[in-house]
Write a structure and sequence with these properties.
The longest helix is centred in the N-terminal third of the chain and has 10 residues, at about 10-20. The protein has one domain. Strand 2, helix 4 and strand 3 (about 75) form a beta-alpha-beta unit. It has helices at about 1-5, 10-20, 35-40, 70; strands spanning about 30, 50, 75. With about 80 residues, it is of the alpha/beta class. The protein is built from four helices and three strands. It has a three-stranded parallel beta sheet.
């Protein structure tokens, strides 16, 4: 988690907003698996989340923090 925070962007206000108001949105769309808003945001409403992962073969994709990211959303786009 510290790696995500240091990597940025770190947006705790966005995550808190989604936690309080996610019901107001038909779908939550997250771009790029690599950042904290995606990792933390997908946990809020996975059944109504879409991940556009933009994943490719890079060292970060093997980090433990991303293990469950690709399966967290109900729908995923092709990468």
């Amino acid at each position: 988690m510290e790696w995500l925070k240091q990597q940025g962007p770190w947006c705790p206000g966005l995550i808190e907003h989604l936690k309080r108001h996610h019901q107001q949105y038909d779908v939550l769309i997250f771009f790029t698996y690599l950042y904290a808003p995606t990792v933390l945001g997908l946990e809020i409403a996975p059944a109504r989340s879409v991940l556009v992962s933009t994943a490719h073969d890079e060292p970060a994709i093997r980090l433990e923090i991303f293990k469950d990211v690709s399966s967290a959303s109900r729908r995923r786009s092709a990468t």
